[in-house]
Amino acid sequence: MIIQEKQYVVMTDKEGRVIVCISVKDMEPENPMILYDGKDHAMFYRRRGQTVMLDYINKEMQKPVYEAKQVFVVELKDPKTAARTYVVPIKQVPKLPLENIELVTPDDIIAEMERTGKKPEDLLKKI
After folding, report:
1. What residues does each domain of the chain span?
2. Across the beta sheet with 2-4, what order do the strands follow?
3. What is the pLDDT of residue 127?
4. Stated pTM of the model
């Protein structure tokens, strides 16, 4: 399963570096990597078993993201507080492997927690 990031921002700073702001995730990233084909979507492999789909990347940001060798990822606790920042390499691919995937939103995870009484880390082990 792939977690669909509902709200995120992709931007460049004054030096032209690409920055991706996402909501904070459980556990530290391990060997993160972004696969990107230069179009609407990117797959962010944050750690084993934890993939985040960045859907509908802003058209103005598609070229800078595709041409970047790496991006700075900022995980936000709230709109003004960074939980962690780190550099993630980007691998340009001709096509993303989007067939036969099941997207899971944070709302889906919360609903599953309420339904089963499981903790977030138990559910994330399945993802």
Report:
1. 2-124
2. 9-12, 18-23, 70-78, 81-92, 33-36, 42-47, 50-54, 2-4, 103-104
3. 43
4. 0.77
